[in-house]
Amino acid sequence: QRATATMGETPEPSPQAPLAVLSKVELRVSCKHLLDRDTLNKSDPCVLLLMQSQGQWMEVDRSEIIKSNLNPVFAKIFTVDYYFEEVQKLRFEVYDSHGHAGVGTHDDDFLGGMECTVGQIVAQKRVTKPLFLKYGKFAGKSTITVISEEISGNNGYVELAFRAKKLDDKDLFSKSDPFLEIYRIDDDRSEQLVYRTEVVKNNLSPIWEPFKVSLNSLCSCEEKRKLRCVVWDYDSRGKHDFIGEFFTTFEEMQKAMGENKVQWDCMNPKYKIKKRNYKNSGVVVLLDLKIHRVYSFLDYIMGGCQIHFTVAIDFTASNGDPRNSCSLHYINPYQPNEYLKALVAVGEICQDYDSDKKFSALGFGARIPPKYEVSHDFAINFNPDNDECEGIQGVVESYQSCLPKIQLYGPTNVAPIISKVARVAANEERTKEASQYFILLILTDGVVTDMADTREAIVRASYLPMSIIIVGVGNADFTDMQILDGDDGILRSPKGEPVLRDIVQFVPFREFKNASPTALAKCVLAEVPKQVVEYYSYKAFPPRCPQPDTPDSNLS
């Protein structure tokens, strides 16, 4: 039984608590001694990767088709998420493909399959197993080899553009049909195929299409690691003619940045020995190299980026009179109310990333002294010049002392507070470096009244270094609040302008009432690392150099 997933889509892990992806793993596949299903030519193999999800095999991805080859080395790199705490079953199926019809999955095209787990491949790093046909029958002497590599320190990818000039002509009646292969030479001297270009027909000075490879894949993120580049003349029967090769490093390739070009003599060692005046079999030129760095949340935190935390508390009349034990703002001497529980759970994690441990604490929807006018962005410490409190405890104390002094009122307008934090974030943005990121935690007991203004404010804020977490307190119907959390679709302003990034996370507190405080914090903060990286990547701000004293990470 097999269902098919969209190409590149990874089947979801089992539906218990969300699992943390331990890491991503790259898998490279090769086969030996495949069965020959074709009468005139050899088989044209292709590999399908399937993953087991809830008892069904789902196709995750497939390799390219290699023409007329019983010992293929596939250029396709399969990437899978690796969950340490879960058995992830994989199945590799090899098929003989038939040109334009694509990969058939008929029995007579099936060259064999192999099952294993991600854990087995990660533990052994290299797994070679026999291929089996249906009913456990061996597919002759066919074997499949899967090599795994954990993507660690994934620091981006590189874009390369190659061409060649005056290559040797290997064809009698036409010119060579060249393609280029790049191999990484590992510490054990084995070679890993990094990339195989397309074939340029009938051309001794081909220009190959630019391509992208991860730095991890190209050189294991080591600039001095040796690379072997080979130029072949393509043969449709799979017997490609060797034109020449050269050796280089990523360090040397980087000279091709900007206006510069790097070139190598493409050498055939046999000709070098035989021919006295042999110079080369052509030259290969690296026309352009672009490095695209990819940074992680930890790169920014370790570079000294501070998370500035602001809490905004709903003081509208719908919360109930704080003196009444039914009120959501009731101060029970024996246990904290929902507002305090949510504030402490989220704030305690955020404070690890803020060096001065000072939090802005604001209120909205109340009449405040001295004139008892309604305010939608007042400091709960009643100091308009400095709304910061000392640590989470300072916020708790300011909250408790402000309650008797204010009159709960309405409506529930949150746009003013979003805009207030956004103004501070906009000033920070002008510094042009990744030094402060703002998290606004809004605690509210109902659906916001100023939905149009709130949507507008969120769209504006999505261009700034900030994220918004909204926790719904109490038992109100929060359906309309889900609109603000762009998970179901893209949030738009009233004029139809979409958010640049999804920066809002909405959670009803009642779903976590009986869970530990860490469960709430984990849920609402889960998106923040991604949002931080998305913002700085969009701005193309790299992390600053690591600072000596950085907080421990428990947010990533």
Describe, in plain words, how this protein is organized in 3D:
There is one protein chain. This protein has 556 residues and is of the alpha+beta class. The protein has three domains: 23-151, C2 domain (Immunoglobulin-like); 157-292, C2 domain (Immunoglobulin-like); 305-538, Rossmann fold (3-Layer(aba) Sandwich), CATH 3.40.50.410. Helices cover 18% and strands 33% of the residues. It has eleven helices and 27 strands. The strands form six sheets. Strands 18, 19, 22, 23, 25, 26 and 27 form a seven-stranded mixed beta sheet that branches. Strands 1-4-3-6-7 form a five-stranded mixed beta sheet. Helix 6 (338-350) crosses helix 10 and helix 8 (415-429) runs parallel beside helix 9 (451-461). Residues 1-21 and 546-556 have low confidence and may be disordered.
Short characterization:
The chain has 556 residues and is an alpha+beta fold.
List the domain count as a whole number: 3
Q: Could you please say which CATH topology of the largest domain applies here? A: Rossmann fold
User: Architecture of the largest domain, according to CATH?
Assistant: 3-Layer(aba) Sandwich
Alpha-carbon distance between the two ends: 38 Å
Q: What is the count of β-strands?
A: 27
* Poorly predicted runs of 5 or more residues: 1-21, 546-556
Report helical residue fraction.
10-25%
Q: Give Rg in angstroms.
A: 30 Å
Shape: elongated
Give the C-level CATH assignment of the largest domain.
Alpha Beta
Q: What is the structural class?
A: alpha+beta
Query: Taking all residues together, what is the mean pLDDT?
Result: 86
* Major sheet size, sense and barrel closure: 7 strands, mixed
GO molecular function: calcium-dependent phospholipid binding
Protein name: CPNE7 protein
Domain VWFA: 308-507
Domain C2: 3-131, 138-265
